[in-house]
Description:
CATH superfamily of the largest domain: P-loop containing nucleotide triphosphate hydrolases
Bound molecules: adenosine-5'-triphosphate
Organism: Microvirga terricola
Domain ABC transporter: 4-234
Number of domains: 2
Protein name: ABC transporter ATP-binding protein
Order of helices and strands: EEEHEEEHHHEHEHEEHHEEEEEEEEHEEE
Radius of gyration: 25 Å
CATH class of the largest domain: Alpha Beta
Distance between the termini: 29 Å
Number of strands: 21
Structural class: alpha+beta
Largest sheet: 6 strands, mixed
Keywords: ATP-binding, Nucleotide-binding, Transport
Low-confidence stretches: none
InterPro entries: AAA+_ATPase, ABC_SmlMolc_Importer, ABC_transporter-like_ATP-bd, ABC_transporter-like_CS, Mo/tungstate-bd_C_term_dom, NA-bd_OB-fold, P-loop_NTPase, Transp-assoc_OB_typ2
CATH architecture of the largest domain: 3-Layer(aba) Sandwich
Strand order of the largest sheet: 6-7-8-3-9-10
Strand content: 35-45%
Amino acid sequence: MADLKIQGLAKSYKDVRVLESIDLDIASGEFFTLLGPSGCGKTTLLRTIAGFQSQDKGEIIVKGERIGTKPAHKRDIGMVFQDYAIFPHLTVAENVAFGLKARSLPKAEIEQRVIESLKMVRLDGYQNRLPAEMSGGQQQRVGLARAMAIRPTLLLMDEPLSNLDAKLRIELREDIRDIQRRLGITTIYVTHDQEEALAVSDRICVMNKGHVEQIGTPFEIYRKPVRRFAAAFVGTMNFLPARLDGGNLVVGGQSVAYPHVEGSGEIEVAIRPENVLLAGGAGEGAAITLKGEVRKVTFLGREAHYTLKTEAGEIVAQVADPAHDFVTMEGRMVDIRLPLSKVALFRPNGDVVKAGSAR
Ligand SMILES: Nc1ncnc2c1ncn2[C@@H]1O[C@H](COP(=O)(O)OP(=O)(O)OP(=O)(O)O)[C@@H](O)[C@H]1O
């Protein structure tokens, strides 16, 4: 059974539609991420689920119960915020106990849950500290412990790692994922960071301008985007203008037999940099072949990125473990192969014609 069902949820601020009719089914124990650019409505959706604001239309159903009109404090939801939102004048233990006291739990149980929750976020021993005496990462761990202490049905997190530096972000996201798995708590996580979304999620919902573009596992979103928006937003993608011409695909003046899709018309070819083959790279079957001038080489140690100028437009290629010859190629002309098994095709309206490869 779905733990959380969202049906036809819509919200406007004055005349501006921020959420178009949103439908979601989130399974029990799932780590579900809302991913999208700034302003796409992620926070509004999360806050509506939490009950901090009301929807104009639609239903929010948790374990079969319609909670859309319940006040926030009766929704049995734990929330972790970007700016931690822990109380500066309360100790760590008092912060974690806050929601438990509000629920009038017996004192002994509160004490036990505080200890348990702090242990879970690796802050045992910090009970008597004040937030000002802790680092940002530690403060967010307190925020997490506070949200989990009430053992909520749903855990909602709004960009919880945004205020932390890159190394801490990775460390804490691993911890969040481990704790979430261990407790099996249904979680909705908001981020605009696509790498973070790929790393932690069971499923990702890619949002754009108040609507859902695609929902899928990280693998599906990356390998088989069904909308141009998802293809462009997650990872790096090359897009080249092209034409379908009665069984042929024409890219940069080069034509290749393409019987997989019927009809004719303008189209875009999309391919990930790691799937572009350079300088006679063999295999992968039929391919679009182009010539390109190497404009820039960025050597990154275990891989190098090549910016190539071709008749069809600019292409970025990624070569793993580049040999010395490869890193001194600036200015040279190279043969480029775009294996047909690896390209995705998108119509001008952004719909997929053929998804990329899922191996
Ligand atoms: N209280 C409000 N009054 C009016 N407009 C609002 C209000 N809150 C948000 N908006 C607008 O609604 C849109 C969606 O905002 P929201 O915060 O949900 O987006 P987001 O995807 O979470 O973006 P970000 O990552 O920047 O937080 C934005 O255009 C924003 O300006």
